[in-house]
Amino acid sequence: MSVGLGVLLAAGVALGAWYVVERRRRRTSPMAGGLHADRSLPHQKEWELYHNSFSLCSKKLRVCLAELGLDHASHPIDLIETGSYENVGRRFLAVNPAGLVPVLVHRGHPIYESHEEIVYAARHAGDRGRELLPEEPEARAVVEHWTDLASLVGDPLAATAQRAGNCIPGLTVPLFATMVRYIPARRFLEGFLFHPDKRRPLFLFALKVLGVRRLPRVTPVRRLVERSRDDMGRHLDALGERLEKCGGPWIARERFSLADVSWVVVLDRLVEADWDGHFWGGGRRPAVAAYWRRLTERPSHGQAIVAERCRELLDGARDLATAKREDPGLRAALEGA
Ligand SMILES: N[C@@H](CCC(=O)N[C@@H](CS)C(=O)NCC(=O)O)C(=O)O
Fold it and tell me: Does ligand 1 come within 6 angstroms of the Cβ of 95?
């Protein structure tokens, strides 16, 4: 065997051994929603939040904690959209072996799944919590129904007809494509190696390679956007009807609730990803347009959403708007005009 081949073999064996050890250190597993009282994490404050500036579900938690007035320690975690795969690093996998944000931690015990986290927080926040999550059965049923509709549950690319929250990943695809353009390709490697759901890094990497302008040419991606768009249209029709029927200003009438906490982040993502004109611009769905304006007037929107907007999002949103302006065919393909 030549020296060169020997060195190559030794390097291959060393890399393989490193990967095996590292995989063991970064053990991943799906985690059920709700409180995990059996897991204990180091903590400084009664409430702690692991979250990402851009993530839809993280925003929901930030709005919720702001509305409840719950003081908490903040642990920002990068996702590849905002720069790196910190969510599959050892430190974060010890917090959530599923590698997903947000994670709410109460007295050192983690709670998983954002729709469960907001309910848990409200239940432990006294009178303000009872405001957001009413105890009277009729109001409670309304809040639970509309909270569920806005939640992102299970496979992020499925069940778009059942939940507005599940339409969000598909509708964010064009924005993902412009955002990940700014992320160096080598940063995806950590995701390919260690992400518990390899489809996620592969999908985002494919969007990076493809670029936003070529998206409509890829039939499965175009179909995903179309299905998410059409289903979201139906969810927003139902939301508009609810607001008109109950007289607003909020989903549970004069009571601002967890349902509104869940919807503000859905509508905010539609604005970020340049869908607001399509869904409620030009006099369409006036009840939704007015509801959105009211939501943006609440301090929680400024504090938990606007103040947290990251550079990758601002650049990606600008590039998406430019691409749609310069290429009316792209706008027509995405918006179905
Ligand atoms: N159903 C979960 C969804 C959690 C989720 O998918 N989080 C995304 C951000 S919104 C995430 O952590 N993605 C990381 C990745 O895909 O690498 C919840 O509501 O908390």
Answer: no
Q: Is residue 189 part of a domain?
A: no
The pTM of the full predicted model, rounded to 2 decimals, is: 0.95
Regarding the beta carbon of 260 and ligand 1, being less than 6 Å apart is answered no
Provide the domain count of the chain. 2
Query: How far apart are the CA of 103 and the centre of ligand 1, in A?
Result: 10
Q: Do residues 144 and 222 both lie within one domain?
A: yes
Give the tens place of pLDDT for each residue, 235-249. Answer: 999 999 999 999 989
Residue 123 lies in a domain: yes
- Which residue is closest in CA terms to ligand 1's atom 18? 113
Map the chain to HEC letters. CCHHHHHHHHHHHHHHHHHHHHHHHCCCCCCCCEECCCCCCCCCCCEEEEECCCCHHHHHHHHHHHHHCCCCEEEECCCHHHCCCHHHCHHHHHHCCCCCCCEEEECCEEEECHHHHHHHHHHCCHHHHHHHCCCCHHHHHHHHHHHHHHCCCCCCCCCCCCCCHHHHHHHHHHHHHHHHCCCCHHHHHHHHHHCCCCHHHHHHHHHHHHCHHHHHHCHHHHHHHHHHHHHHHHHHHHHHHHHHHHCCCECEECECCHHHHHHHHHHHHHHHCCCHHHHHCCCCCHHHHHHHHHHHCCHHHHHHCHHHCCHHHHHHHHHHHHHHHHCHHHHHHHHCC
- Supply the range of the domain harboring residue 259: 140-175+214-335
Nearest CA to ligand 1 atom 14: 100
Evaluate whether residue 224 is within a structural domain: yes
